[in-house]
Amino acid sequence: MASVDLNGAMEERTVEELRGPTNPMVSPLLTDLYQFTMAYAYWKAGKHLDRAVFDLFFRKNPFGGEFTVFGGLEECIRLIANFKFKDEEISFLRSIMPTCEDGFFDYLREIDCSDVEVYAISEGSVVFPKIPLMRIEGPVAVVQLLETPFVNLVNYSSLVTTNAARHRFVAGKSKTLLEFGLRRAQGPDGGISASRYCYMGGFDSTSNVAAGRLFGIPLRGTHSHAFVSSFMCLDEIASKALRSHDGSSTCENFVGLVQSWLHKLQLADSLSGLFGETNQSELAAFTSYALALPHNFLALVDTYDVMRSGVPNFCAVALALGDLGYKATGIRLDSGDLAYLSIEARKFFGAIEKEFGVPGFGKMIITASNDLNEETIDALNKQGHEVDAFGIGTYLVTCYAQAALGCVFKLVEINNQPRIKLSEDVTKVSIPCKKRCFRLYGKEGYALVDIMIGQNETPPKAGERILCRHPFIESKRAYVVPQRVEELLKCYWPGDSHKPREVLPPLQKMRDHCMDHLDQMRPDHMRRLNPTPYKVSVSAKLYDFIHYLWLNEAPVGELL
C-alpha cells in the first residue's frame, strides 16, 4: 500500500516529512483570544522569553471507567512542526488587537517552535489522571499559544480512542468491529478523526472512504435499504451472465440459477414451514448485487422480513454463487431482536450446510448494526447470540456517553522555579515542577502503579523497593518492589536542542501498541461495572515538596 502524505499515518515520519500539508483549519490562529492577549502582556513585560514548563493532563477517566487511551500526539507534533504565522494572519491579528504595539506583531512574525521541546507518552498508551500526557517546555509566550490547540487535538482523539477500546473490550477479541459513524459525526473533521482513532482503539475497519485513503484503514460496506427497495422484480436485471470464479465457464442465466436454488430451499425438509414466497424485489436486488460483486456478497436482509424473506433470498443467491466457485460473505441485520435473529439465521445456514452438503455455509458471517453501543453489546453477550461483527456508528463517534475528556494545560515551572495551582477542590491542585513519570509492573506482568518523581531524583529500578504516595492524601501510601519499570515520557520534539527524538510510528503500529498496552492492564481495572481504580502516586520527596510549596503559596487566614 502506498504511503500517504497528508497525515503520514502509514509510515514512520521524519521531521522534514512532518513539515508538509496540514489540515488548513489547524493554524497558529486555532487558539483562544486570551492566548494572544497574554502573549502581548508577556511581551510588554519582557517576560515572553522566560523558560516555562507546562503539563497537559486530565483529572478523571471518561465513561465512568478507570482507564483512558492517549491519542492526538502526532497531530500536536505536526502542528508545531508547521507553526509559523503567515502575513495574512498577522494582518488579521492587527485588526482585532488595534491597541497593541507594532513590535509585538513583528515578534509574532518571527516565532516558530524551534526553541520548544515536547515530551510525551507514546500515542495509543493506556493513561491515567494526573499523569502528564505531554510536557511542553519553551518560551512562555510561545508555549501559551500552543495550549488551546494541543488541548483540542488531544481531548477528542483520546476520548474517541478510549470509547473504541471500551467497545473492543466488551465485544471481545474474536469479534470484528466496524466503524460506521461518518454520517453521524460532528462534521467532516469529526468524521475523519473518529475513523482514525477508532481504528487505533481496536476497530478493524471503517466505512469512511476518505479515512481509508488517508490512513490505510481497511474499508468495509454493503448496501442500503434503498438499494433493496429500488428493484421491483427479477425481470429488470439487465446483466444475467456471470463468469465462474476460475474463469473456465460462464453462467448465461444466473437469475435462473438463483430461482432454482430458491425453489430447492422451499422444498427442503429441514427448512419446511420456515418460509414461503419471498419478496421478489429483494431477491432481484440481491441477485443484482451479487452479479456486480460476486467476490464480496454481503446482503442487508431486514428490509422486509428477515427470516421469511431476507435470509432465504440471501441463501438462494449465495448458493448460486457457490455453484460458480464464489463464496458469499454473509448478512447484515439492522433492526429487530438481534440476538434472536442471529441465532435463527445461524440455524438456517447450518441446516442448508447439512442438507445440501455445502461445506462452511453454516459459518456465514452475521453482522449486526442499528445504533449499537457498549450496553447493547453487553446485553447481547448475556443473552447469547451468533453475531460475528458489529457495525457501530452514532454512540461511538459522537462519544454519546460523555461529551469531552476535560484535558487541562497547567504551568508547573518557570525559569527553574516550581509553580503550583491551588484550589479549594483538591482534585484541581496541580502537581508542581518538571517531573519524570514511570509505570511499575508486578510479578504477573500487569501494571501496578504509576509514579511521578522530581526531574533530578533517582529513578525507580526493577527489584528495588520504593515508597509510592498519594499526591494529596497522607494515609494512602504503599511500598512497591517492581519487576519491571517503564519510563513514560519520551522526547518527541527536541526543537534545536539536538536531543534524540522518538520516531512517530505508523497508525497500524499505534493500534498494535494500544492492544498490547490494554493487555498489560489488570482485568478489574478494565471492566465496565465497578472497575477498580488504578493507583497514581508520587515519590516521597515529591510528596513533601508539593505540601511544602502548597503551604508556602497559600495565604494564611486571620480570625477576628
Our count of helices gives 18
List unreliable stretches of 5+ residues: 1-8
Going by helix content, strand content and strand pairing, the class is: alpha/beta
Strand content: 15-25%
Q: C-alpha Rg, in Å?
A: 29 Å
**Main beta-sheet annotation:** 6 strands, antiparallel
> How many domains is the backbone divided into?
2
Please give the share of residues in helix. 25-40%
- Average pLDDT reading: 94
Instruction: Please name the CATH architecture of the largest domain.
Output: Alpha-Beta Barrel
Q: CATH-wise, what's the superfamily of the largest domain?
A: nicotinate phosphoribosyltransferase
C-alpha geometry: elongated
- CATH topology type of the largest domain: nicotinate phosphoribosyltransferase
Q: Order of strands across the biggest sheet?
A: 15-14-1-5-3-21
CATH class of the largest domain: Alpha Beta
EC number: 6.3.4.21
Protein name: Nicotinate phosphoribosyltransferase
GO cellular component, one term: cytosol
Keywords: Glycosyltransferase, Ligase, Magnesium, Manganese, Metal-binding, Phosphoprotein, Pyridine nucleotide biosynthesis, Transferase
What does this protein structure show overall?
This protein has 560 residues and is of the alpha/beta class. It folds into two domains: 15-167 and 402-553, nicotinate phosphoribosyltransferase; 223-386, Alpha-Beta Barrel (TIM Barrel). 38% of the residues lie in helices and 16% in strands. It has 18 helices and 22 strands. A six-stranded antiparallel sheet has the order 15-14-1-5-3-21. It has a six-stranded parallel sheet with strand order 7-6-13-12-11-10. β16 and β17 (447-454) form a beta hairpin. It is elongated. 43% of the residues are buried. Mean pLDDT is 94; it is low at 1-8.
